[in-house]
């Protein structure tokens, strides 16, 4: 009898586990379908339920159910109608851009940037503030971050928008738990950024996350840049530090613990000069070679770069020679990354954008000469159209990507 009872209990437990697994499978499938429908509407701009059924291959009843949930969650909205083929008006759907907002902030050595976007990806805010990140303690930087974010939250609240999340871009090594293990330009080490920021913002209801600035710049470029939608891309930050965000097979690759993409630490040899890519080709190398400032970390970096650009336009021989040498060093570093990852595009971000007329041609020549595959494996060096805004925009955009993947928000009061 005891054995029969035990056997029956085991069977009951097994059946319960199967039911739970089935429910989980159903939940996953529905979440995937919600994301699928949302992405289709986003791609089309406006479309009807019948269009969605035809384009997604889902039956009309399923599409109607998914659309109803997306409208209830304030993700889609009905936006007019058109006359169908048989004279019946078809109600059109579009992304609901009027209710949610996501926030992205970048902290760097001499500035902070904040970007807010709606669910359609439209910019609601774009702020840039001077900030002495190199000379501030981590605590002071968190206070400045929290103050800037609170201003944005208050403005979004006044417009009746619900905050989806806040993400922070940092030039350093950040683990998957949001701890900045090392950000040498900021002087941060083993700093729990997300924990301290949540505390400073009084534990908000939305998620607070952090990631490397190059990773988030790559996210922005993939969605909004001139190479939007490309499946294989390398994004180079072009700030005082030099990092790379990696898009591989359409996905951002952070690595096992979040530290992938540290291209600045690769060793290169250019004209007998051996060193790290960052030391020979980073913006720090530009300023150390051509700037009159003695303290590069504390310099007004943008003003110093603008001065270099002015001198290059005036065709100062020493400046042109130095920029060509730095461009070749950058191309040597890019060639190593291209041989390893075979991207379609290498995007120059940050201050590289302003310097690109002088460094990009030299980098392209070096890339072509050094890569193993002919024609650099099809890789092109291109210049970002997003500029310094890219990491903050990518921070805000990553939240939208989560929703596109099916992790749907719930409106307040729902």
TrEMBL record:
Pfam families: HTH_IclR (PF09339), ROK (PF00480)
UniProt domain HTH iclR-type: residue ranges: 37-78
PANTHER family to which the protein is assigned, alphabetical: BIFUNCTIONAL UDP-N-ACETYLGLUCOSAMINE 2-EPIMERASE_N-ACETYLMANNOSAMINE KINASE (PTHR18964:SF149), ROK (REPRESSOR, ORF, KINASE) FAMILY (PTHR18964)
Stated family: Belongs to the ROK (NagC/XylR) family.
Protein name, UniProt field: ROK family transcriptional regulator
């Amino acid at each position: 009898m005891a054995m029969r009872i035990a056997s029956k209990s085991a069977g009951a437990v097994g059946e319960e586990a199967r039911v739970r697994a089935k429910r989980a499978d159903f939940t996953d499938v529905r979440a995937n379908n919600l994301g699928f429908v949302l992405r289709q509407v986003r791609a089309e701009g406006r479309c009807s339920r019948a269009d969605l059924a035809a384009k997604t291959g889902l039956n009309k009843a399923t599409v109607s159910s998914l659309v109803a949930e997306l409208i209830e969650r304030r993700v889609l909205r009905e936006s007019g109608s058109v006359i169908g083929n048989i004279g019946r008006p078809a109600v059109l759907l579009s992304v609901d851009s009027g209710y949610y907002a996501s926030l992205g902030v970048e902290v760097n050595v001499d500035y902070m940037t904040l970007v807010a976007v709606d669910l359609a990806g439209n910019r609601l805010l774009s702020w840039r503030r001077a900030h002495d990140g190199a000379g501030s303690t981590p605590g002071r930087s968190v206070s400045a971050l929290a103050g800037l974010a609170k201003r944005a939250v208050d403005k979004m609240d006044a417009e009746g928008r619900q905050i989806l999340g806040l993400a922070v871009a940092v030039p350093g090594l950040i683990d998957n738990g949001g701890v900045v293990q090392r950000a040498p330009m900021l002087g941060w080490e083993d700093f729990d950024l997300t924990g301290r920021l949540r505390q400073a913002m009084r534990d908000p209801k939305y998620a607070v996350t952090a990631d490397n600035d190059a990773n988030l710049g790559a996210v922005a470029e993939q969605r909004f840049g001139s190479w939007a939608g490309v499946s294989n891309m390398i994004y180079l930050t072009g700030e005082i530090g030099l990092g790379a965000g990696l898009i591989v097979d359409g996905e951002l690759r952070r690595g096992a613990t979040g530290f992938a993409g540290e291209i600045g630490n690769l060793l290169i040899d250019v004209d007998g000069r051996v060193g790290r890519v960052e030391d020979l080709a980073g913006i720090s190398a530009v300023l150390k070679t051509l700037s009159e400032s003695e303290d590069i970390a504390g310099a007004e970096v943008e003003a110093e770069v603008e001065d270099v650009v002015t001198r290059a336009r005036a065709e100062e021989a020493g400046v042109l020679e130095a920029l060509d040498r730095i461009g070749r060093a950058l191309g040597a570093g890019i060639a190593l990354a291209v041989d390893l990852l075979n991207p379609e595009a290498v995007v120059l971000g940050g201050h590289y954008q302003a310097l690109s007329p002088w460094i990009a041609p030299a980098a392209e020549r070096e890339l072509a000469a050094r890569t193993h595959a002919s024609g650099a494996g099809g890789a092109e060096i291109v210049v970002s159209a997003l500029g310094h805004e890219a990491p903050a925009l990518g921070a805000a955009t990553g939240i939208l990507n989560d929703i596109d993947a099916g992790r749907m928000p719930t409106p307040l009061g729902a």
